[in-house]
Amino acid sequence: MVHAADLIRKAVMRLAWHTGFASTAREHFGGLGSIIMLHRVRPDCVSPLGVTRSLSITPAFLEQIIVSLKSEGTDFISMDEVVERVKSGKRPGRRFVAVTLDDGYDDNFRHAYPVFQKHAVPFVVYVAPGFIEGAAVLWWEVVESLVAKADFIRIPDGPEWRCGTLSQKRSAFHAIMRYFSYTLTELEQMPVLREMCAAQDMVCSVAPDRDVMSWNEIRQMNRDPLCTIGGHTVHHYNLKKLTAGMVAQEMHLSAGMIEDQLGRRPQHFAYPYGSAKAAGRREADIAASEGFLSAVTTRHGTIHAEHRDTLHALPRISINGRFQKLVYAKTMMSGVTTPIANAGRRVIQA
Ligand SMILES: [Zn+2]
């Protein structure tokens, strides 16, 4: 699926790069470095309607980014070191990249980890124990499969959507995403999704046993000093929709569950969804009081010395499956797209 907005973004980024503007502007906008955000890394992108394609990049593209940035002298560092560099202001002349992956998709172990090993690149995977233990599912992917299969979806006492044609399916997908995100409460989502799946005779999971990593796989990866496992709540709820007590509980319980499995409490955290609608000042304060050293959002931006005061609201650069070209990744990491995406602001904090 081609998005008009994507075409414009791509054209602007190519122009910024090829005119040399991005590399010149990097001195002003690039800051200390970038935290890049990935979700899925796999050679084949399976997205029945093309609507979740942005979540996947190929291992080859991941490797291309690493090789290219390393050849320019970029340091690949862990989140521990990001915190250290931002706090101390040390090595300002060396630009860094920290690699983060959200949700703990199973392909992180099978396809991304070998690339990180080959190039000795530290990485963080933010895992939600609810996904691993079946208390939550990657519902956006289940909704995509559901809409791909169904001709009609009706929610008891709720709205209904026609999904006979491809274009109806795509609009139904986006409407259901909005319904789940803004109409239902976080606690209603799973029961409603289960009912929707039952009505279509579908199992309520992405693909049995092949969606997120098992604790065994996470343990195996965690033995490698390159790997950091971070927290991502238990149930992957939008924290802004919960009470402060529930937010603290989601953070606290998830850290405890990870510690039970790995023997070490996670030190770093990622807010589920991570946009301004899902994480703000209140969530940052709670993450800090829960003892996390850092917390990342999904807001678009590079890392600057000013972030020493807001280590629990660090922006990231999303490496998106619809933008799999070095020129786009490097332009975003130069920081020139930060003010474009954030009403002129160079430093993005909560
Ligand atoms: Zn997530």
From TrEMBL:
The keyword Signal applies. Transmembrane segments: none annotated. Keywords: Signal. InterPro entries: Glyco_hydro/deAcase_b/a-brl (IPR011330), NODB_dom (IPR002509), Polysacch_Deacetylase (IPR051398). One of its GO terms (biological process) is carbohydrate metabolic process. Residues 95-350 form the NodB homology domain. Gene3D superfamilies: Glycoside hydrolase/deacetylase. One of its GO terms (molecular function) is hydrolase activity, acting on carbon-nitrogen (but not peptide) bonds. It comes from the Bacteria. Belongs to the polysaccharide deacetylase family. Is involved in generating a small heat-stable compound (Nod), an acylated oligomer of N-acetylglucosamine, that stimulates mitosis in various plant protoplasts. This is Chitooligosaccharide deacetylase. It comes from Phyllobacterium myrsinacearum. The lineage of its organism: Bacteria, Pseudomonadati, Pseudomonadota, Alphaproteobacteria, Hyphomicrobiales.
